[in-house]
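Researcher: Go.
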Amino acid sequence: MRLEEFPLSNTVPEPDRSLFRFGGRRARTFRVILFFVNELVPALAGAFLSGSMKLLY
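Model: Structure:
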């Protein structure tokens, strides 16, 4: 069986392209949200913990 006749070689790249085409903006905003969560949550947790430590002690 040649590669041209093999169906997977024709169907595999297409979902990736459609995913990038339709979900590009959404994926970018999701990446930005993940970046802010990764950056802000440790900072907020550290500030909250230090504030609670100051309140406790």
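Model: The mean pLDDT is 70.
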